[in-house]
């Protein structure tokens, strides 16, 4: 392995994530066709494994899996002022995030007033004992 690139970091490499110096590579450091963030494993390099991630193997959860659960209903959607969440299981907490991933609120209330929020897309994270459901909300 020959590291002749000036983009190699001096931080600790964490398997499957990146390194502690720069988690996201600098512009031009990676092939743009492969995307900006890489997951990798290499048995020749000693990694610091935090235990948070077992490997680069990824399981994608999509709409198909969420529809099989079918325990949450969010309405009206789109909405102008309030959203109501109903579920067939006990809701532990509800978190609301903006499009940048900033958490706007945490509540256990199943009717949420979003009238003061600007128009746009939001994400609800609904936590149950065994499941987490993500729902997109459009504020008009």
List the helices and strands and how they pair.
Elements: E1 13-14, E2 18-19, H1 63-69, E3 72-75, E4 82-87, E5 93-97, E6 103-107, E7 111-113, E8 120-127, E9 132-139
Antiparallel strand pairs: 1-2, 3-4, 4-7, 5-6, 5-8, 8-9
Describe the overall structure.
This protein is mainly beta and 140 residues long. The protein folds into two domains: 49 residues, no CATH class; 77 residues, Sandwich (Immunoglobulin-like), CATH 2.60.40. It is 5% helix and 31% strand. It is built from one helix and nine strands; from the N terminus they run E-E-H-E-E-E-E-E-E-E. The radius of gyration is 20 Å and the shape is globular. The protein starts with 12 loop residues before the first strand and ends with a strand.
Brief write-up:
The chain is mainly β and 140 residues long. The protein has 1 helix and 9 strands; from the N terminus they run E-E-H-E-E-E-E-E-E-E. It has 2 domains: 49 residues, no CATH class; 77 residues, Sandwich (Immunoglobulin-like), CATH 2.60.40.10.
Describe the largest sheet: 4 strands, antiparallel
The shape is globular
Q: Number of helical runs?
A: 1
Q: In what range is the share of β-strand residues?
A: 25-35%
Q: Kindly report the average pLDDT value.
A: 71
* CATH homologous superfamily descriptor of the largest domain: Immunoglobulins
Report the helical percentage.
under 10%
Radius of gyration from the alpha-carbon trace, in angstroms: 20 Å
Q: What gap, in angstroms, lies between the N and C termini?
A: 53 Å
CATH topology of the largest domain, by name, is: Immunoglobulin-like
Number of strands: 9
Element-by-element helix/strand order = EEHEEEEEEE
CATH class of the largest domain: Mainly Beta
Structural class call reads mainly beta
The name of the CATH architecture of the largest domain is Sandwich
Overall number of domains: 2
């Amino acid at each position: 392995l020959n590291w002749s690139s000036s983009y190699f970091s001096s931080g600790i490499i964490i398997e499957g994530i990146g390194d502690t110096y720069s988690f996201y590579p600098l512009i031009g450091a990676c092939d743009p066709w492969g995307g900006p963030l890489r997951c990798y494993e290499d048995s020749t390099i000693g990694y610091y494994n935090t235990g948070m991630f077992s490997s680069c193997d990824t399981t994608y959860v999509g709409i198909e899996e969420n529809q099989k659960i079918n325990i949450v209903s969010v309405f009206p959607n789109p909405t102008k002022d309030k959203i109501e969440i109903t579920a067939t299981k006990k809701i532990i907490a509800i978190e609301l995030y903006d499009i940048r991933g900033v958490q706007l609120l945490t509540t256990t209330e199943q009717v949420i007033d979003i009238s003061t929020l600007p128009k746009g897309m939001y994400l609800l994270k609904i936590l149950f004992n065994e499941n987490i459901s993500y729902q997109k909300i459009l504020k008009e």
